Amino acid sequence: MDEKDREILDILQQEFPLAARPWAVIAEKTGLSEQEVVDRVGRLKEAGIIRRIGGVFDSRSLGFYSTLCAARVPEGDIDRVAGLINACSGVTHNYLRDDEYNLWFTLTAPSEIEAREYLTTIEEAAGITIVSLPATKVYKIQVTFAMGDEQI
Amino acid sequence: MMGERDKIVIKKLQDDLPLDREPFRQLASELGCSQEEVIQAIEDLSRRGIMRRFGAVLRHHNAGYIYNAMVMWEVPEEKVDEAGAYMASFREISHCYLRETPPGWPYNMYCMIHARTEATIARIVTAIAEKLGVKNYKIVNSVRELKKTSMVYF
Question: Cα distance from A92 to chain B (closest Cα, Å)?
Answer without folding.
Answer: 5
